[in-house]
Each structure stands twice: as C-alpha cells, then as structure tokens.
Specification:
Elements: H1 3-16, H2 39-46, H3 50-57, H4 66-76, H5 80-90, H6 108-116, E1 122-125, E2 131-134, H7 136-143, H8 160-166, H9 168-173, H10 177-194, H11 199-211, H12 213-220, E3 230-236, E4 240-250, E5 258-263, H13 269-285
Antiparallel strand pairs: 1-2, 1-5, 3-4, 4-5
Helix pairs in contact: 1-5, 2-3, 2-4, 5-10, 8-10, 8-11, 11-12
Length: 286
C-alpha cells in the first residue's frame, strides 16, 4: 500500500459522496459525468487552485499546510477519524531502512492485568488486530474452538479481521455480522493510514482481499473509523444470546496496543448468560 495512492483513492471516494447542491453549488441540469464533486468544484470551495488540489490528490504535495488540509476536510465533511486519516496519508512518515520485525509482545504487567479480570472477558489487541493475550473468558466468548495458547504462538496468533472474514464460527457469533465487518474494516483502514508500507499489514490485507469478496468490497470503499465503545449482540453456541458492551482502552506505553473488556448490564439476562459461561469455562478447565 502506497500512501500517495491511498490518499488519491481516499479523496476521490470522499468527493463522490458529496452532492454539489449540498455544498451550495448551482445545478444546471443534465447528467454529470462523475458522482459527487468535481476536482475543480472542491478546489473552489476549499479556496485553492484546481491545479494545486489535483497535485494533492495525486500525492504530489507532501508539504500541504494545515490550512489547506483543514479546508479540504471541511468541504468533504470529514469526521474526526477521517481527518486523522487524511493527515496520515498526506504526510506519511519517512521510510526508514526496514529491519526484521520482531513479533509484538505484551508486557508482563499487562498480562497480569488481563488475568485479573477473572469472569469478565478481556484481551489485548496488537497494532494490526492480532490477539496478543486473552483470559479464559474472552477465549470462551470469542473463539472457544481455537487453542487457548494460540496468542502465545506468534505464527498462529488469532487475528480479529482474519477470523471475522475467513472463520465461519465468527460469522455465526455476531447477530449483526455485517455491521461488525464494516466497523472492523474501517478500523483497519485507519491503522493502515499510520502504517502504509508495513509488509505484515499489506500481507493481511492481500490475504483478506483474495479470500473474502465482502472484505474486498468494504476495503475499496475507503471507510475509516475508530473501533470505539459499542454494544453488540452475540449468539453464543453454549449460552445463547447475549448483549455485551465492549470498552477499548489504548495502552500508552505500547504502540497500537488496545485492551478490550466485555460486560453486560447488571441484573440482565445477558449477565446471567455471562455467569453461566464463566461456570462452564471453570468446569472445563478444572
């Protein structure tokens, strides 16, 4: 993935979703050759020359000012995640001499914290959505069919995106699999903006593009977004339907790593189902 190519595709996708009349431009009838705003129209609304904007979209303006990027973001009505993505693509980090990448590791204190959650499912996601560590409850909730020790084996680490699109168990787990899929791809797009030339991420995207037409379609839409706090319905094979809240917390001392914790409303049927899952997990490991 080349940041300059990604920038052009992202801007074109965002231009296509903006209607000229919504931006206050006059409509003179007739069918437009392209959907959304033309380059010239966007440049006019952003207060830059058409030539300058064209160079920006082609990745030929690496020194675009904050004022220009902010103006473009305003015209395209980008949200905060999309603005962050725009800046990441417009100002990619200088390429350094590539070293052999070391597998991501979880600090011992973080591992102890995850274990301390007990009957509350908790795990740590790596920068590219690998599961680096999970407690028995997170394993039982999301992927009881996998080996519990898989996160400790770097060649076999479960990856949320790979499981979601290539593992049929995950498709059955989520009541609204399509929404979960969109959210995961949007999160991966945001990550890719920060690591456009990382071979591990490129390999993951290539694998998913070939293996899942649904992923390929969602990836081509260039939707970006942070996988923040949310509530989802799960159809668990052992305890039935549960509605769980997921909280994500970034680990400031570990680049790109996030803790995910799953909870149910106190006193709800979902909490009872989660307790049952805890009992079954304890019995299986006892």
């Amino acid at each position: 993935m080349d940041a300059h190519v990604e920038l052009g595709e992202f801007l074109r996708s965002r231009r296509a979703r903006q209607q000229p009349e919504d931006a206050g431009l006059p409509m003179y009838g007739g069918r437009r050759r392209v959907p959304g705003l033309r380059r010239e129209e966007l440049a006019q609304l952003a207060g830059v020359s058409a030539g300058y904007y064209t160079r920006l979209e082609q990745g030929q303006s690496p020194n675009a000012s904050d004022a220009v990027l902010d103006a473009v973001a305003r015209v395209l009505r980008l949200d905060e995640a999309e603005r962050t993505h725009l800046y990441s693509l417009a100002r990619p980090k200088p390429r350094t001499r590539r070293r052999t990448a070391r597998p991501e590791q979880v600090r011992p204190s973080v591992r102890i914290m995850i274990e301390s959650f007990g009957n509350v499912p908790a795990l740590v996601l790596g920068r590219f959505l690998d599961i680096l560590v999970w407690n028995p409850m997170a394993h039982a909730l999301l992927a009881g069919h996998l080996n519990f020790d898989a996160p400790n084996q770097t060649a076999e680490r479960p990856n949320v995106a790979r499981m979601l699109f290539l593992d049929p168990h995950m498709r059955e787990l989520y009541a609204d699999w399509t929404q979960k899929a969109r959210s995961t791809v949007a999160d991966l797009r945001l990550i890719a903006g920060h690591h456009p030339d990382d071979p591990r991420l490129t390999g993951l995207v290539g694998e998913l593009t070939v293996g899942s037409p649904k992923f390929a379609k969602l990836w081509s839409a260039h939707t970006v977004g942070d996988c923040g706090t949310n509530t989802r319905t799960y159809h668990h094979p052992l305890v039935g339907t549960m509605e769980l809240m997921v909280e994500f917390m970034t680990l400031p001392d570990d680049e790109g790593q996030r803790v995910a914790v799953y909870n149910a409303d106190p006193g709800s049927p979902s909490e009872a189902a989660l307790r049952l899952l805890a009992d079954l997990t304890a019995t299986a490991s006892g």
